[in-house]
Amino acid sequence: MKRKALIAGNWKMHTTAVEARMLATAVAEGCSGIDDRDVLIAPPFTVLGEVAASVKGSRVIVASQNVCWEEQGAYTGEISPIMVKAAGGSAAIVGHSERRQIFLEGDDLINRRLTGALTSGLMVILCVGETLEEREGGRMFAVLDRQVRRGLAGVDAAAMTRVVIAYEPVWAIGTGKTASKEQAQEAHAFIRNLLGEIFQKDIAAQTRILYGGSVKPTNIDELMAQPDIDGALVGGAALDPQSFRRIIAFG
Ligand code: 13P
User: Fold this and answer.
1) Domains of the chain, start order
2) Out of 50, 96, 134, 188, which one is annotated catalytic?
3) Among 180, 175, 178, 206, which residue's Cα sits nearest to residue 192?
4) Which residues neighbour 111 within 8 Å (Cβ) at sequence distance 6 or greater?
5) What is the position in ligand 1's atom list of the atom closest to the CA of 212?
6) Residues near ligand 1 with C-beta < 6 Å?
7) Ligand 1, closest atom to CA 238?
8) Which residues of the chain have a pLDDT value below 50?
9) d(CA 50, CA 54)
10) 183-242 tens-digit pLDDT
11) Which pLDDT does position 225 carry in this prediction?
């Protein structure tokens, strides 16, 4: 089964309203006429609505960078799937390593976010990835196994059509140190095989697995040439319209 490539830009804690509108408009223009790949952008919560309005009518998918499992209530600092949808978004990122490391989100909390978002009809990007210490200590596969299994606990095969996995080795994020194409492919193949164990082979074959960590115009082509890399989750380079457009135009 051929998987449709997905290029996703995670804007992290960047952009005010004016900057966000400009960037979103440039992305929408940059992908007009391209329909063999999906494009997604994840702006900060404060500009979700503005960004959705700026890309309206284009093929750009708008995502939140995190999401709560509840529809509403006393959850200070959180945003619900209903709010994401009302703002014009249709997807959410969960389990980003910055959420795991800086804000101490664990696998069970991330699983609640993921299942809540799926129940509300959102598409979800589940981020996983090992730290340098875990890789060098020989624990990379065990960490990926745990993050994928616990992240996807309770998800049924039907809902997996709306799940994307992003492999983002923590040591490659924002460091300029990209995983080599061999290192990335090895991790992606491991995750795909694991999806086959958790679900079935057809789910493993259909699920998109993105690579993230210092993706740039200069390395996107060789990454995308790997058999199990189906797209990219881009941080820094997604803030520069020219770079992001070049990444979208990989191949
Ligand atoms: P960089 O592309 O800046 O390394 O960030 C990757 C990332 O964390 C995307 O979610």
Assistant:
1) 5-248 (3.20.20.70)
2) 96
3) 206
4) 150, 151, 152, 153, 154
5) 6
6) 10, 96, 168, 173-174, 212-215, 233-237
7) 2
8) none
9) 6
10) 999 999 999 999 999 999 999 999 999 999 999 999 999 999 999 999 999 999 999 999
11) 97
Query: What's the gap in Å between 200 CA and the centre of ligand 1?
Result: 30
Q: 98, 105, 134, 168: which is the annotated catalytic residue?
A: 168
- The count of residues in the chain is 251
Tally of CB atoms within 10 A around 66: 23
CB 39 within 8 A of CB 31: yes
Question: Distance between CA 31 and CA 242 in Å, rounded?
Answer: 12
pLDDT, residue 177, reads 83
pLDDT at 137: 95
| Listed residue (128, 155, 172, 164) closest to 40, CA to CA | 164
Task: Say how far apart CA 27 and CA 14 lie, in whole Å.
Answer: 16
Among this protein's residues, is 96 annotated catalytic?
A: yes
Q: Which atom of ligand 1 is nearest to the CA of 127?
A: 10
Sole residue written with tokens 């830009």 = 9
